[in-house]
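Re: that chain you flagged

S.,

Sorry for the slow reply, it's been a week of failed gels. I finally had a moment to sit down with the sequence you sent. For the record, here it is as I used it:
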Amino acid sequence: MNICKPSVPDSQPHHSKRTLFCRSCEHASPIDGDWIMDDSVHHERRLCPRCGAVVDQPAI
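Prediction finished late last night. Pasting the structure tokens below so you have them in one place:
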């Protein structure tokens, strides 16, 4: 039996196209992952759970 090894080493994380990245601390998680949802403003936005930076918010 032949076993095929993946072309990407396990040390490199695999991120889908629906992954958000925090520019402040480089935290990465799926769009529906561990981001903090903040609706205290007039629109909903996502905050980083590690550093609190705004990661995603709709354009006004």
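What I noticed first: The first strand starts at residue 19 and ends at 21.

Talk soon,
D.
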